[in-house]
UniProtKB/TrEMBL annotation:
Annotated GO biological process: transmembrane transport
Identification of the protein by name: TRAP transporter substrate-binding protein
Phylogenetic classification of the source organism: Bacteria, Pseudomonadati, Pseudomonadota, Betaproteobacteria, Burkholderiales
Family classification: Belongs to the bacterial solute-binding protein 7 family.
Keyword list, A-Z: Signal, Transport
Domain of life: Bacteria
Signal peptide: 1-26
Length: 351
């Protein structure tokens, strides 16, 4: 099926013809079509994102309601978000950064393997890179970037015993972008690209031996039912964001734009703090330890992270992540890696 036909089918099936109308300037309540995170990803979607859009008019102070649906309830792949936005099918999207990086490699500059080993560094990456990314998304996909937030450190879950990265040699490992795939190859694993919703079954059936995601998302989706070990070494921060179609954004008055941006700034800051709380709690829950207040208790072996593996991931930025990504990104967006070095590279000391 061609992409055009696919998008047409989605549009027809979901009756997504309502966009932001000229009534935005009046005080009529306008319904914005919003694509949310997969419900399967857990508590950030459930406790922060969905309530924000459910109470959208109050949160923004604007006469807009949000027709919010999680992406997994819409029948759209999370790799197609930029395409459906460009086609005008939605007004706002909860953008999955790595998953859409094949359509726009510039996105991945926000989340290179090893570039953000902790929340403080991840925030530096976001603040230094968001303007360049916003400009690129506006130009290529006609969407305005409203903010970026992290699910948190993406760690390893395996159904076979592991004590260090080298133990992944010969194992099939679920990945979600090409940068992570290249890193897994470098330590001897075989990367297997899978969407989040496919992972539980794939682990259960032995399609993969290990999989990478955040501790809280793994807990919410019951990955510890089908794995035995967790290795809390963060490879990436699983950056996600909010973007609005330029068609919808440009129909807002300057005051409305200011209120809209302020509301998303508040939401994003709230998620940054919540994500950090969830991460440590979920690591405890997955291993059946206290305190465990946000998730379900399981009995995973919590493997101590070696200093050598931390160093391997840290060095991967300059030796693997940046060169691999730069080659791809510069082909579609000349000057892409140079812009990254001037912004993110300068902020985190990588050239």
């Amino acid at each position: 099926m061609s992409l055009k036909h696919h998008l047409t089918t989605i549009a027809a099936a979901l009756a997504l013809s309502l966009g932001l109308s000229s009534g935005a300037q009046a005080q009529d309540r306008v319904a914005l079509k919003v694509v949310g995170q997969p419900a399967a990803t857990g508590l950030i979607q459930k406790n922060k994102e969905k309530p924000f859009f459910d109470d959208f008019a109050k949160r923004t102070g604007l006469p807009f309601d949000a027709d919010y649906k999680s992406i997994d309830s819409l029948g759209i792949k999370d790799t197609e978000q930029l395409r459906v936005m460009k086609a005008g099918l939605f007004d706002i999207v909860s953008l999955r950064v790595s998953q859409n990086s094949r359509d726009e490699p510039t996105l991945l500059g926000m989340d290179l393997v090893g570039a953000a080993p902790d929340y403080a560094t991840a925030r530096k990456v976001y603040e230094s890179y968001s303007d360049a990314l916003d400009q690129r998304l506006q130009k290529q996909f006609q969407v305005k970037l409203l903010g970026i937030w992290p699910f948190g450190p993406q760690i390893l879950f395996c159904k076979k015993p592991i004590a260090k990265l080298a133990d992944m040699a010969g194992m099939k490992v679920r990945v979600y972008d090409q940068n992570l795939a290249k890193f897994i190859e470098s330590v001897g694993g075989t990367p297997v690209p899978l969407s989040f919703t496919e992972v539980h079954q794939s682990l259960s059936l032995g399609v993969v031996d290990c999989a990478i995601t955040g501790p809280s998302s793994a807990n919410s989706s019951n990955w510890p039912e089908v794995t035995t070990h967790q290795y809390a070494l963060g490879f990436q921060m699983a950056m996600n964001g909010y973007a609005m179609s330029m068609k919808s954004w440009n129909r807002l008055s300057p005051d409305q734009k200011s209120k809209m941006q302020a509301a998303f700034n508040t939401l994003v800051d709230d998620i940054w703090a919540y994500s950090q709380e969830l991460t440590q709690d979920a690591i405890n829950c997955n291993a059946g330890k206290d305190p465990c207040t946000t998730g379900k208790k399981f009995k995973l072996v919590n493997v101590p992270v070696t200093d050598a593996d931390k160093e391997t991931v840290r060095k991967a930025v300059a030796s693997i992540s940046l060169p691999t990504w730069a080659e791809i990104c510069d082909k579609s967006n000349p000057g892409c890696s140079a812009a990254w070095k001037k912004t993110v590279g300068k902020a985190i000391g990588v050239q």
